[in-house]
Amino acid sequence: MLLGFVIIYLVISIGIGVYGATKVHNTRDYVTAGRSLPLPMVMAMVFATWFGAETVLGIPATFLDEDMGGLISDPFGASLCLILFGLFFARPLYRMNLLTIGDFYRSKYNRFVEVMVAIAIALSYLGWVAAQVTALGLVFSILSDGSITQTQGVIIGASIVLIYTLYGGMWSVALTTFVQMVVIVLGLLWITWLVSDMTGGIAPVISHAHDAGKFNFWPELNSIAMLAFIAGLLTMGFGSIPQQDVFQRANASKNEKVAVWGSVGGGIAYFLFAAIPLFLAYSATLIDPQKVAALLNSGNAEHILPNLVIDHLPMYAQVVFYGALLSVIMSTASGTLLAPSVTISENILKGMFGRMSDAHFLRMMRIVVVLFAIGVTAYALWAVGEETGIHHMVENAYKVTLVMAFTPLVAGIYWKRANGQGAVFAILLGLATWIPLEILAPEGDMPPQFAGFIMSIIGMTAGSLLPTLNWLKKK
Fold first, then answer.
1. C-alpha closest to that of 154 among 339, 388, 396, 324
2. From CA 184, how far away is CA 251, in angstroms rounded?
3. What is the pTM of this model?
């Protein structure tokens, strides 16, 4: 019965997405929804796209395995990213009337910088989108009581998201996300009310977590711990700013004011609402401590919340929870599948194929969506085999953009002397520092991505101030 209700919900979601395809008449409709979306819809997209599988399954699992300090990258870094983007980047980028954030690097610097950053952005999405389809596979496996394996569930989930994203683009993402946000908010609030009845209220759960030391947040006062803490915050807090999905939500706004406050409001809402899955998962330690201990010992902490719902809540509550959970995952997966596909098409392939009609470009973009979905599915299946955690997959996604894309973006907007040579030096020095450290000393005293980030700043500064080499001049 539960699986039947879930299938009905999925069919409805696909229907809404396919309806969105009727509003797509050209490439800009497909990518930016005609730059016509109002504040409530933009805020809903920002919130619902970031409130993904890692928020409901990955973050609570990390919290139970570690403590509040383990969440520095997400939700703390993720919320910081959205708020900073709204306050300092949304307005200047919106005014440039770009199709992708990769276009900024071509406009400000040169083609080489555009392509390098576009590759980095596209690669960063592999982990993020894979985390969502991995979670879909987990949900289908749990709902079918193992009749559908997680591997089969990954393939099914990726196919469903691909169907409505492929045809409707940003319009489908906007419409489905708005509906899904309503399901997410109302569903999880109601589940929280039911679970709090079982724990004697919210206060006993908070008190129990406090006594268990789960609210330990700040690092030890030594350089190694503090560097790891700062790197964790900046990897997602800065590294996810130069991302197409963040940009395209602001860029789909009907004006720059909506772009700013939709991003800021979505970031605040995300931070506040991320506390709900933490409460629900930790409640399980009071309701069913033996089951929680068994799942933690077996390395299946991400199963704790779904098992709590199935074992201890009535059928109608299970339907609501899994409807909300699927909304969470699909809203994130659709937006993050579209973003890298658009970036690859606009900032890598378009320059290779030269001039083409809008219809041909839109067709190429849809082909890339399919190919990227296949790549993401393959990566997700590999991650399932390697037992890579959802939260860990998302954390790793932003290292490459922190190292390569963030510094040129900030300098390009706020430093008049920034030039193409500086951007190239920033990218090359960042990569030359990060990659060897990531291979040779991934757990070293200096986090590899943080060292790469520092070197990218040095490269940007030195390259922009030194005489410009002929081949690096903006063309």
1. 388
2. 24
3. 0.86
